[in-house]
Amino acid sequence: MKLTPKNDTLHELFERYQASKGEIQSKLAEFKNVPKEEHFYELCFCICTPQSKALHALKVVENLKTENFFLNPFDATDILRNPEHYIRFHNQKAKNLVSIQMQWSTIAHQLSLDTNAIQKRDWLSENIRGIGMEESAHFLRNIGEFGVAILDRHILKHLVELNVIDEYPVSMNRKLYLEIERKWKEFCEKVHIPMEEMDLLFWSMETGVILK
């Protein structure tokens, strides 16, 4: 595996990490303490985020909570397509939100099992509508289940810049996802930055904030 980044990217990574380490670790501790009753809405958030702004997804979740979506599910299309917090693919995602509400007892049971994050990620991505490898990993990280990679486009861009992977993948299947995840974990071990911390570091470098 290559470990010579382009344009002193690795040096910048270490500098940014040292400056943000405390805040990053504090955020990860928050994830570990998310109450179980909030897990459903964390999954709603991760359903909404692909190809949409995280802040918009947070606004949508606030609206769903206000309307008590968990106990009284409804077609949330109008909420998702609101121009103030627009979510792409709102029609399909609204259907997915109802679907996970209907399956929640099964999902919650799987989350309660004494299995690791990889096993939980695999079950979620194989059994829940609208949840792939990336969204499953994102959800698990947000409820304090660490050890799986969130390979969204921003993360992949940074992995290319660091020469962890040779090029940005045009498409992503399960085999490629696991291969990139393996390379990223190896890189994290070599530079002594945990993958979950590096994930939030990449996001802070993109947006200037550490969100989720």
If you had to describe this structure to a student in words, what would you say it looks like?
The protein has helices at about 10-30, 40-50, 55-65, 75-80, 90-100, 105-110, 115-125, 135-140, 155-160, 175-190, 195-205. The mean pLDDT is about 95. Helices cover about 65% and strands about 0% of the residues. The protein is built from 11 helices and no strands. Helix 2 (about 40-50) packs across helix 3 (about 55-65), helix 2 packs antiparallel against helix 5 (about 90-100) and helix 2 (about 40-50) packs antiparallel against helix 8 (about 135-140). The protein is globular and about 50 Å long. The protein has about 210 residues and is mainly α. The two termini are about 30 Å apart. It has 2 domains: about 10-30 and about 150-205, Endonuclease Iii, domain 2 (Orthogonal Bundle); about 35-140, Orthogonal Bundle (Endonuclease III, domain 1), CATH 1.10.340.
Supply Rg.
Answer: 17 Å
DSSP strand count? 0
Quaternary state reads single chain
Per the CATH scheme, the topology name of the largest domain is Endonuclease III, domain 1
H/E topology pattern: HHHHHHHHHHH
Largest sheet: none
| Approximate helicity band | 55-70%
Total number of distinct structural domains: 2
Proportion in β-strands? under 5%
Named at the architecture level, the CATH assignment of the largest domain is Orthogonal Bundle
Query: Helix/strand/pairing class, anyone?
Result: mainly alpha
